[in-house]
Amino acid sequence: MTEKEVQLLNFEREEYSDWDGDHHYYSYEITNGMSFISSGSDELGEDGQWYVDVFNTQEPIRFYKFEEVQNLLNILEKHLIK
Description:
Elements: H1 3-8, E1 12-18, E2 21-31, E3 34-38, E4 52-54, E5 62-63, H2 66-78
Antiparallel strand pairs: 1-2, 2-3, 3-4, 4-5
């Protein structure tokens, strides 16, 4: 997916710096303990595509398609008891 698609999913931009310069990634929190994180701007492959991981899992759960992430977020938000 593109960076624009990650933004369209309402992920929040997070800034960070390391020895290689200034970078950013995106995060989205459903509720405390359930969140998603994008690849960092310094982690993109040759194709420049972004991905989204379920945050803090023992084994990575990764999504590359905008529609899949959008559907998952919609389902989770719909079933969130507030």
